[in-house]
Amino acid sequence: MAIHVLSTLFPTVQVSLSVGTAFSSQGYGGTPVMTTALIDTGATITAISSQVNGALQPQQIGTVLYRRPGQIASWVPSYLVQLDFTTHLRPGPPFHLEVIEENPATPGVDVLLGQDLLEKVIMVWDGPRGRLLLTY
Amino acid sequence: MDQRRPEAPEWRIQENDVMSRKPIEHVGTNGGKRKRRPSPRFFDWRTSDPAKFAGAEGLTDELTTYKEHLDELLRREGDFVLIKGRQVIGIYSDREQALQAALDRFQDHPFLVKRIVAKEPIHTTGGVLS
C-alpha cells in the first residue's frame, strides 16, 4: 500500500506522466513529464493540459463523450497515460488512465485528477494542517 | 429517586396560533422561471446516433461499427473491444491486452479501444478550466 502525505495549501499533488512501457518500448511517445495535478472531485475523467499532451505525445486510443461546463457534449480524443505520484512515504504502483486534453485554469496546474483515478485511492484532507493523505 | 418521566407540556392551539394565510413565497427558483433540465449523463447506444455529436470525424467508421455490432458486443459487456475502420478486430478482458493487439497490428495508426457498454458516460470536468 502506497502512502503519500502532502503539505499543500490546496489539493494539489506532484505527479509524473509517461506513455507507459508498452508504448515507450516500441519507440512511441515523447518525453515523460513531472508536473502539478489538481484533485478535481467534479471531474469524471482525468485531463491533461495541451502543453503536457504536446510534450508527452501519448497514443490516441479512442474517443469519449465530453461536455465542457456550459457547453454541449462532443466526441474528443482520448489518450493512454501512465501516472505516478512522486511525493510519497512509500511508493506504489502506477495508474494507467484514459485521459482527455483540457486546460486547467489554475496557474502551474497541468493535470486534473478526476473520479476515474479518485475511485481507486483513499484520500484524507487535513485542512487545519494543510495536508493531504493519499493511500492506495 | 422519582423515576417518573416528566410530564409532557400541554399543547393547545391558541387563537393567535392559527397559521398565516399569506401565500407561500418560493425562494431559489430563479425568479419564477422554470429550472433548466439537467443535461443527460449518458448516451444510449441503442437509441442514439453517435454522429449527432460533433468531433467524431476521426473515428466515425469505428463508432458506427460499434453501434452496428452492439448486440453481439454486449454479450461481453465490460470487456474491451478493438475496432479498426469497419472491422471488429477482437474482444479482450482488459484494456492492456486490447492495446497490445492494437499496437502489434496498427502501430500508431488510429484505432478504437473502448469498454463495451450500452450506455456511454458523458464526461465532465469541475469547471476549473481556462
Offer a concise description of the structure.
The complex is a heterodimer of chains A (136) and B (130). Chain A is mainly beta and 136 residues long.
Keywords, please?
A: 136 residues; mainly beta; 6-stranded mixed barrel; 3-stranded antiparallel beta sheet; 46% strand; B: 130 residues; alpha+beta; two-stranded antiparallel sheet; 5 strands; 18% strand; elongated
What's the topology here?
The complex is a heterodimer of chains A (136) and B (130).
Chain A lengths: L2 E5 L4 E7 L2 H4 L8 E7 L7 E2 L1 H7 L3 E8 L6 E12 L9 E7 L7 E5 L1 H4 L3 E5 L4 E5 L1
Parallel strand pairs in A: 3-8, 4-7
Antiparallel strand pairs in A: 1-10, 2-3, 2-6, 4-8, 5-6, 6-7, 9-10
Chain B lengths: L41 E3 L15 H9 L1 H4 L6 E5 L2 E6 L2 H12 L5 E4 L3 E6 L6
Antiparallel strand pairs in B: 1-5, 2-3, 2-4
Task: Explain what the structure shows.
- The complex is a heterodimer of chains A (136) and B (130).
- With 136 residues, chain A is mainly beta.
- Chain A has helices spanning 21-24, 50-56, 115-118, and strands spanning 3-7, 12-18, 33-39, 47-48, 60-67, 74-85, 95-101, 109-113, 122-126, 131-135.
- In chain A, strand 5 and strand 6 form a beta hairpin.
- Chain A starts with a strand and ends with a strand.
- The model of chain A has no long low-confidence stretch (mean pLDDT 88).
- Helix content of chain B is 19%, strand content 18%.
- Chain B has helices spanning 60-68, 70-73, 95-106, and strands at residues 42-44, 80-84, 87-92, 112-115, 119-124.
- In chain B, the strands form two sheets. A three-stranded antiparallel beta sheet of chain B has the order 3-2-4, sandwiched between helices.
- The longest helix of chain B is centred in the last third of the chain and has 12 residues, at 95-106.
- The model of chain B has no long low-confidence stretch (mean pLDDT 82).
- At the A-B interface, strand 5, strand 6 and strand 7 of A face helix 3, strand 4 and strand 5 of B.
- Strand 5 of chain A pairs parallel with strand 5 of chain B.
